[in-house]
Structures are given as structure tokens and as C-alpha cells.
Write a structure and sequence with these properties.
Bound molecules: arginine
Number of helices: 12
Radius of gyration: 22 Å
Helix content: 25-40%
Order of helices and strands: HHHEHEEEEHEEEHEEEEEEHHHEHHEH
Oligomer: single chain
Strand order of the largest sheet: 1-2-13-10
Shape: globular
């Protein structure tokens, strides 16, 4: 699909709305029995539960009849928690066992999925004391049921590319923004337009659903002392809720299972607002702060970066929204690693993701090696999911 170029706002609507792409034919592999049994064994073993043989028989019967099987509430809960525990890129795993599960396996229609995503955002907020939460929708089935949320997160800002090469909004999301506009969504054209949810199911082409105002909490970014920073007019959404990763438990794929924790400041203050292909605010901030930007050797970027990160933490604190800093979280993470070792488990860690993007060497997570095992249950991001998040139509649902 070609991306539409945009010259000015309000943007021109396409004269003829493009036909939504047709739903894919039913596809799906049966669950691999070996994966199912391995999961049941681990579940029973780790939790010291009896009845493994009986449960295995039950599952075998279901597999033979349908090619898949249904997790008990306890299996689903533990599976989702352990998928988090196994996420090698996540520094926040000390809290894996506190994950709140919203079992919505009976929900499979796009409009109901959207409504439950909105409710997810409302309930995880808890007045600012954000609670790690996952909502699990109907899993994929061999008979062809599939639900996919195209957005990489429930809350994301639109990005618009202009003809003169400039950009409005989040450069990461220009592809999905263009696609949403082709479907008929119209953004206001600000730097912080919230994208609608794009949801596709096996029996409906992709549809878009605007987020209700009351589901979204945002924090205006202001500096505790340097009022110049406030002039940038920055903000960010309070809840990072990943919505395009597939939750895999015992061979069953839950293709729609949005989950969230809370932010670590550097995600916003050192990446989202700073990456050159995203908001790229450092040049402007450096100038506003009167830093000497004539040479890299003045380290003006680094100085501006620290102040931006102070502003992010300060602003979330003032708004009463949970956020952590990279020093605290690094220490907690090592506590988690040690706990896992004590429990006799392997804790997979991807160093390049765990070390924070600022002051890496100041944090204890920098100074050691880790296991890199690939364990299940797991959250996985596949190629089609990444393409959808860029507004590209993958070959199959
Ligand atoms: N880095 C992503 C973002 O800035 C969020 C990833 C998940 N982060 C989290 N703290 N749970 O939006």
C-alpha cells in the first residue's frame, strides 16, 4: 500500500474510500500436543498441584476432537504471569506475580473487543495507581478464529508526513495513521492526536474505533524549575499498553491480549520524545535552554536530555500517575534476577533492552552477563503484527 502524502490541515479525504481488504479465509494449525503437555506439567509442577494425569487426559480428548483445548482459569492466569516473567526485554518483572487478569475469552466481535480495551484502560488506571493488567480475548482456533489489534499500543499518537519533509506527531506511527485515514478516520492534525483502535477479526474486515476521552490519561510535561521546557508543549499518555503481541500458552495463541505495566521515565524522556525519527525535541530544547549547540563537544544534547527526563518524572509525580526511574528499576530488576535464581529458575535477559538508554553504566544492570533462554509461555511479536502496526496489510490475518 502506498502512503498518502499530506500537505495541509484539514487533510483532504480520499474521494472514494478504498475497499476494506477482505477477511482472510479460515486458517490455523492444530495445537501441538507436546507443547500442551509440557505446559500442563510445568503448571502442575511449579504450583505443587496434583491431578496432572487426569488433566492431561482431558486435554488429549479436547485436542483430538477440536485441534485445540481450553485453559482453566488457573492455567490462564499462571500462563499470562509467566509469559511476563519470561519477557527478556522487560526490566519491570519483579512484579510478574501481581499481574491482574481480565479473562475475556468469550469476547470475539470487533466492537466488543474495542469496548473491553477501553474498559481495560479505565480499570488499570485506578486514579493513577496503575495496576499491571492484561485482557485476554478469544484465542486463535484451527477452525479459523482470529482477532488482531493492529495498533502496537492501545494509546498511540498519530504521525503525519508533509510534502516539505516535515512531520507532525509521532514519526513512528505515520504508516498506521495513513491507513486509519484511508479507512475514514480524521485526525485533528496536532502533535498528539490519539489514534483510533484498528481491530480485525476473521469474520470482519479491519474497523476503527476512536478512544473515548475518559479512557485516556495524559500528562503534560513540565520542568520543576526550567519554565523554558514547558514552552515545548509536550505531553505523553500515562499507560503503556502493548496490544499487538501474541500471548502463547501451552501451544494456544491468544492473538489479542493487550497488557500494560507502568512507564519508566526514560522510555518517554530518552526515546519517544527524543529519537530523531520520532519527536526529536532535543535541538529545540537545547536552544530554549540557551545551551551552546555549536559543537557536540559541549554535550548540550546530554544536558538537555537529563533535564527532559527530570521533567518527565516530575510531571508524572505531580499528576499522581505511577512511573519509575531507571536507577530504582535497575536495582529492583536485579532483585528479581536473584529471586529467580533462588527459585531455581532461569531468568532470560536481553542486555541491550534492559540497560537504560541514559546513564547505562550508572545502573547495576549494565555490569554483568545474563542468560538468554527463549522460554514459554511467552509474548511474541511476529512479522505480520509489525506490518499491521505500520499500516501495511499482511498476507493473512
Ligand atoms: N517503550 C514503550 C513506550 O514508550 C512501552 C513498552 C512497555 N513499557 C512498559 N513500561 N511497560 O511506549
Amino acid at each position: 500500500m502506498t502512503e498518502q502524502s499530506i500537505t495541509r490541515f484539514p487533510p483532504p479525504r480520499p474521494a472514494v474510500p478504498p475497499a476494506p481488504h477482505p477477511p482472510s479465509p479460515p486458517v490455523g494449525d492444530p495445537v501441538d500436543p507436546a507443547e500442551a503437555y509440557a505446559f500442563l506439567e510445568e503448571f502442575h509442577h511449579e504450583n505443587g498441584l496434583a491431578g496432572l494425569e487426569q488433566r492431561r487426559h482431558e486435554v488429549r480428548r479436547q485436542l483430538e476432537a477440536t485441534g485445540t483445548y481450553s485453559h482453566t482459569t488457573a492455567e490462564l492466569t499462571w500462563g499470562a504471569k509467566v509469559a511476563w516473567r519470561n519477557s527478556a526485554r522487560c526490566i519491570g518483572r519483579l512484579y510478574w506475580n501481581s499481574l491482574h487478569i481480565r479473562d475475556r475469552r468469550h469476547v470475539g466481535r470487533a466492537d466488543e473487543v474495542a469496548a473491553e480495551c477501553f474498559e481495560h484502560l479505565r480499570t488499570t488506571w485506578r486514579g493513577g495507581r496503575i495496576r499491571p493488567t492484561i485482557t485476554i480475548f478469544a484465542p486463535d482456533t484451527p477452525a479459523g478464529r482470529r482477532i488482531r489489534i493492529w495498533n502496537e499500543q492501545l494509546v498511540r499518537y498519530a504521525g503525519y508526513e508533509h510534502d516539505d519533509g516535515t512531520r507532525t506527531g509521532d514519526g513512528r506511527n505515520t504508516g498506521i495513521t495513513a491507513y486509519a485515514r484511508k479507512l475514514g478516520w480524521e485526525g485533528a492534525g496536532t502533535d498528539f492526536d490519539i489514534l483510533p483502535l484498528l481491530i480485525e477479526t476473521d469474520h470482519e474486515p479491519v474497523r476503527w474505533f476512536p478512544l473515548p476521552r475518559d479512557a485516556v490519561h495524559e500528562v503534560r510535561i513540565e520542568h520543576p524549575e526550567l519554565a523554558e521546557l514547558d514552552l515545548l508543549g509536550l505531553m505523553w499518555h500515562a499507560i503503556p499498553a502493548i496490544s499487538n503481541m501474541c500471548l502463547e500458552i501451552g501451544g494456544v495463541s491468544y492473538g489479542a491480549a493487550p497488557f500494560n505495566g507502568w512507564y519508566m521515565g526514560t522510555e518517554i524522556g530518552a526515546r519517544n520524545l527524543v529519537d530523531a525519527d520520532r519527536y526529536d525535541v532535543l535541538p529545540q530544547l537545547g536552544a530554549l535552554l540557551g545551551l551552546d549547540t555549536s559543537s557536540e563537544r559541549t554535550l548540550w544534547r546530554d544536558r538537555a536530555l537529563v533535564e527532559l527526563n527530570r521533567a518527565v518524572l516530575h510531571s508524572f509525580d505531580r499528576a499522581g500517575a505511577t512511573i519509575t526511574d531507571h536507577h530504582t528499576e535497575s536495582e529492583r530488576f536485579l532483585r528479581h534476577v536473584h529471586r529467580e535464581e533462588e527459585a531455581g529458575r532461569v531468568c532470560p535477559v536481553d542486555w541491550s533492552w534492559i540497560v537504560p538508554p541514559v546513564s547505562g553504566g550508572l545502573t547495576p544492570v549494565y555490569h554483568r552477563y545474563y542468560d538468554e533462554a527463549d522460554l514459554t509461555p511467552a509474548f511474541r511479536l511476529d512479522e505480520p503484527a509489525m506490518r499491521r502496526a505500520r499500516g501495511e496489510v499482511p498476507d493473512r490475518l
